[in-house]
Amino acid sequence: MDLALTDEQRQLREMVHSFLMSYCTKEWLDQLEATESYPFDLFERFAELGLLGLGVPSQYGGSDGGMLEVALVSEQLGHVGGSVNMTYFPTAVFGNQTLLGGASEEMKKAYLPEMAAGRLRTAFALTEPEAGSDAAAVRTRARADGADWLIDGSKIFSTGAHVADYLVVTARTGDADGPSRSLTVFLVDASATGLSIRGIPKLGHNAVKTCEVGFDQVRVPGDAVVGEVGGGWRTLINALDAERIGVAALCVGLAQRCTDLALEYAKGREQFGQPIARFQAISHMLAEMETETAAGRWLAYESAWRKDQDLPCSKEASMGKAYATELATRTATRGMQILGGYSYTTEYEMERFYREAKLYEVAGGSTQIQRNIIARHLGID
What we know:
Blueprint: H1 7-23, H2 26-35, H3 40-48, H4 67-78, H5 82-102, H6 105-116, E1 122-125, E2 141-145, E3 148-159, E4 166-172, E5 183-189, E6 195-200, E7 210-221, E8 225-226, H7 232-268, E9 270-271, E10 274-275, H8 280-308, H9 314-339, H10 350-357, H11 359-362, H12 367-377
Parallel strand pairs: 1-4
Antiparallel strand pairs: 2-3, 3-7, 4-5, 5-8, 6-7, 9-10
């Protein structure tokens, strides 16, 4: 079994790491967070580096590669901070993977090159006030009106909707054959009449707003349907698998960064005449952090590899997300403990990773939902 990355994959990882460490400094990110300013410059740099087109075939203007390359980038994003992650994910993961998994050739050729080039931003609009973990319970409705569709309803927790050019919207277009079989995915112009967007105050990731989106008789053309009318569930599963793989990878990156920061601090901080890293209580915490991060990394990589091989990956994606998201929270908590009082100050990065880590256990399907999915794949109904 060959677990080695190719030369190209290693070069990609090193390039992204070097760029992020030099560009996304703590001072730069602190300013963005304090002013809640979307980093348009960073999004443009992602495009220039070809990162927005990763996993997208060159025939659609992309940079080729697959989900493993996206995971490698996501892992490096996790080293930096949540607002950096959220600048990348809505377009490079949600947008690209939704279109690749369900759109017509005409739609792929029209939109994917623009997204890869950074000329279009997308946001995912699936969750609703009454449809979170139960994604099949979507109440937003789209009804045919001649050749067009009219959408009514509301969405919540749509990250990046305030700066998006298009929203990937799931709406109910029928009631037959069960709840999941009457869903349709639409690509909706964010400037459409009747569409409203409001930011929601939150604990972290503040440079990229998470939004409530309202639809009041929003008219969209018939060619805005992604895939088939009533066939949205299959499109969603593909996008959600990709999201979970990407989130697992970025949580591994977050955990690795917390481990590295805690190790550096523990080696330099002296108490009772020696570095605190030499105390068994501290050294064992660090050993566990490093070991568990390595385990999370290979869960994330395997699920990405399976997706690239067109093998079933929903179970593996859920396994990776469930493990890695809890890993991120656990490792950030240990990092806070090792840094002691300094961890509670904004002078150090650990407090931001601690705040941001918790999101991933609930976003994209909570940890409990991931375990339900895993159990179903084990034949437990």
